[in-house]
Amino acid sequence: MRKHSTQQAAPRHYQTLEDVIGNTPLIRLQRMIAPEIAARGNVVLAKLEGNNPAGSVKDRPAISMIRRAEERGDVQPGDTLIEATSGNTGIALAMAAAIRGYRMVLIMPEDLSIERAQTMKAFGAELILTPRSGGMEYARDLAEQMQRDGKGRVLDQFANADNPRAHYETTGPELWRDTGGEITHFVSAMGTTGTITGTSRYLKEQNPAVRIVGAQPSEGSRIPGIRKWPEAYQPKIYQPQAVDELVLVSQSDAEDMARQLAREEGLFAGISAAGACWVALQLARTVERATIVFVVCDRGDRYLSTGVFPA
Predict the structure, then answer these.
(1) Catalytic choice (56, 64, 200, 272)
(2) Which residues belong to any copy of the Tryptophan synthase beta chain-like PALP domain (predicted)?
C-alpha cells in the first residue's frame, strides 16, 4: 500500500493574467509570399498581438500605465479611471482595471464596432458614446473635461510616456530576441503611436540601420486603429524622428488584405493589422535579403459586425 509523504510539498508558482501579457508568437507568412519576394531573399514575419489576454497589442501599455501610476501614487484601487479610446485600448484598460480593482469609464465614438463595446462592458467598464461626427478628437476633449470636473483620472494614452515605455521594455526586446537580431524592417499601424515609438527606440539602440515604417490611412479612408491626426491632436508621445518612412494605405486595400490573410494564411487579423501587412508586402517587393516584421494588432473577430468579412 502506497504511503503518503509527510514532507510538505514546495508551493507551486502559478501565473496571473498579467504574467501572460507579451511574449507573443512571431510567425512567417508562407502562401502570400510571391515568387518575386522569395527570389529577393526576403522573409515577412507577423507578431501575433491578438494572443494577449484581452486580444490586442494594447494590453501592454494598458497594464503599464496603471502599474506605473500606482507606483507614483497617482491612483489607487477604487479610483475611477477615464480614457478616450477607439476600441482596443479601452478593452485592454477594462481588463486591467478589472484585475487591479478600478472603476473604468471609457469614451468612444458611436460608430465603432459593436464587438468592442460589448467586450468593454463584459469587463465591467462603463461606456460613454460620442457623436460619429466628432471622431476621436471630441472623445478626447470630453475625457479631459470630465477630469477637470473631478469625475476621475485620465490615463491619457496619447501623452503618457508609460505607453511607449511598455513597447521599449517588451515588444522591442522580443522582436530582437526572436529574430536573432536579424530584423531589418519594422512595420506598424499608427494610431496613438505608442507601439511604433517605443519599439523603434529599442531597435534603433540595437542597430541604427533597422528601418521603421509607419502605416497611415490614405485620404478619405477610415481604418479602425490607424489614424492621421490633425496637428492640434498629434499624440504627445509621438517622436517623428523614430519613424523613417510613412506609407499610406487605403481602406479597400486594408480590408482586402484582411480577407486574404484569413483565406490564404489562416491568419484572422484586424483591419489595421492587415493595413500594416499590406505595407510590409509592398516593401518586400523593393528590398533584398530583408527580415520584415509587421504587428498584428488584434484579431479579426473584433470586426465581424463591420461587414469586412463575408457572412
Answers:
(1) 272
(2) 18-298
Task: Measure the CA–CA gap between 121 and 79, rounded to whole angstroms.
Answer: 18
User: What SS3 class is residue 294?
Assistant: strand
Distance CA 242, CA 85 (A): 23
Kindly report the pTM of this predicted structure. 0.92
pLDDT tier, 6 (very low <50, low <70, confident <90, very high otherwise): low
> Given this model, what pLDDT does residue 203 score?
98
Q: Which of 301, 142, 276, 148 is nearest to 212 (CA)?
A: 276
Q: Look at strands 153-154 and 80-84 and give their pairing.
A: parallel
Catalytic residue among 47, 56, 58, 221: 58
Return d(Cα 286, Cα 184) in angstroms, integer: 13
DSSP H helices in 16-113:
35-39, 59-72, 88-100
CA-wise closest residue to 215 among 193, 237, 248: 248
pLDDT number for residue 156: 93
Would you give the end-to-end CA distance of the chain in angstroms?
A: 61
Asked if 126 and 102 count as a contact pair (C-beta separation under 8 A), the reply is: no
Judge whether residue 118 has pLDDT over 70: yes
> Residue type for 211, please?
R
**What is the rounded CA–CA span in Å between residue 24 and residue 297?**
11
∠ Cα 33 194 293 (to 5°): 15
Residue 305 and residue 113 in contact, taking contact as beta carbons nearer than 8 Å: yes
- For residues 98 and 125, give the distance between their C-alpha atoms in angstroms, rounded to a whole number: 8
Annotated catalytic, 204?
no
Question: Which residue type is seen at 258?
Answer: A
CB 26 within 8 A of CB 45: yes
Alpha-carbon dihedral sign for residues 135, 137, 139, 142: negative
Is residue 47 flagged as an active site residue? Answer: no
* Cell matching residue 270: 484586424
